[in-house]
Amino acid sequence: xxxxxxxxxxxxxxxxxxxxxxxxxxxxxxxxxxxxxxxxxxxxxxxxxxxxxxxxxxxxxxxxxxxxxxxxxxxxxxxxxxxxxxxxxxxxxxxxxxxxxxxxxxxxxxxxxxxxxxxxxxxxxxxxxxxxxxxxxxxxxxxxxxxxxxxxxxxxxxxxxxxxxxxxxxxxxxxxxxxxxxxxx
Length: 185
Known about the structure:
By secondary structure, the chain is mainly alpha-helical. Helices cover 61% and strands 4% of the residues. The strands form two sheets. A two-stranded antiparallel sheet has the order 1-3. Helix 1 runs antiparallel to helix 2 (68-95), helix 1 (36-62) crosses helix 3 (104-110) and helix 1 (36-62) packs antiparallel against helix 4 (123-151). The termini are far apart. Mean pLDDT is 88; it is low at 2-13.
């Protein structure tokens, strides 16, 4: 009797659209199961939150210039929030029997955030770069919101809370580079 050996499949880079599969329901609790479309929409939010966290850390390590300390600390707050929000979204996906994909190659291939520049970045430019990334992350959530809400209002409620906080961060960060509006009376 000859024993056959299976060879492991070759590792492939994660193509766009990887992740957000539905888990097998072996011994799973009963309840609401996300459609493939809902899983993909939550996956899109997840990868942008993960990328925001990583780019925030890159900015945190490399910001220099005037008002360094405040900018450095504000970035910590954004990073912590993005980490918490990504965990909340991923755990919501699991509760709905979807499988989140937070692997670095998946995040890099599917995020909507622009690449963050390398090297030291002046505080003023860092403020602008982070504001763009906060707004882009919110835009992803707003893009998927209505469809998410239609299928699962509970997941939409999570998006509401995240949008509210990220928009507040965008306002607070961007205020660093603003001048007072002139009185128009």
